[in-house]
Amino acid sequence: MQVILASRSPQRKQLLENLGIEFQVFSPDVDERLAPGSIDAALTALAIRKARSAGTRYSAGLSIGCDTVVVIDGCCLGKPRDLVHARSMLGQLSGRTHEVKSALALVNLASGQTWSGIESTQVRFRPLTESDIEHYLHCGEADDKAGAYAIQGHAVIFIEAVNGCLCNVIGFPAPLFIKLKQAAEAC
After folding, report:
1. What does pTM read for this prediction?
2. Which residues are catalytic, by number?
3. Where are the alpha helices (DSSP H) in 60-173?
4. Which of 1, 4, 79, 151 has the fewest C-beta atoms under 10 angstroms from its C-beta?
């Protein structure tokens, strides 16, 4: 069955390639705002919308939708709007533990059958100085990243500990994907 990655993320593309999966890339055009209420439910609904959006181009195949947020103090930190917002996010994360949540959804575009799940990883940042934050913001990695950082890049020096799936923090929970893909193939 053809596999479609409904994502613009180069990190998701790279992680899926690392798994040896052949796939097509589809850029979803969906509203990425999370609905009010449970973070897990809203994140899952968004991942499903992204996966289903591939149905506008493909009539069959297994479509993958994914979305990742950073959660601290019960609040979601998605992608920063601008440098001021990114600076604020990094300040919130400084010296603290936060949670990175990814919702992953697989949709059989022919039948509409859906498999989904949530991966959660705890990440602890060391205390950051204003200089740390400014230097990081000027390297450009904060743009378009949940929580305004990319653990696979320069932000690796901010990390004191990771408890859980590192791939999840990069933006694609590979072990969850394998589990859901096996469930989809069993049907």
Report:
1. 0.93
2. 67
3. 83-93, 130-139, 166-170
4. 1
